[in-house]
Amino acid sequence: MDNKLILIILAILLPPIAVFMKAGAGLQLVINIVLCLFFYIPGILHALWLVLK
Question: Which of 2, 13, 29, 45 is surrounded by the most beta carbons within 10 Å?
């Protein structure tokens, strides 16, 4: 999926879903889930960084 607008909205609302759709099930998804569990804002920032790079 390459529609960036949908991925950006998902990165803000549900960061792990956006990371999964962009990078698949891997290290980036695990990092994002851990960031979202501890603090929600770093999870959002990580997802946005991954979607926009």
Answer: 29
The pLDDT of residue 3 is 86
Q: Report the alpha-carbon distance of residue 14 to residue 18 in Å, rounded.
A: 7
Report which of 50, 1, 2, 52 is spatially closest to residue 26, judged by C-alpha positions: 50
2/35 Cα distance (integer angstroms): 24
What is the 8-class DSSP label of residue 26? Answer: S
Could you report the per-residue pLDDT of 1-53, keeping only the tens digit for each? 558 899 999 999 999 999 999 999 999 999 999 999 998 999 999 999 999 98
Contact in structure between 7 and 52 (CB atoms under 8 Å): no
d(CA 5, CA 51): 10
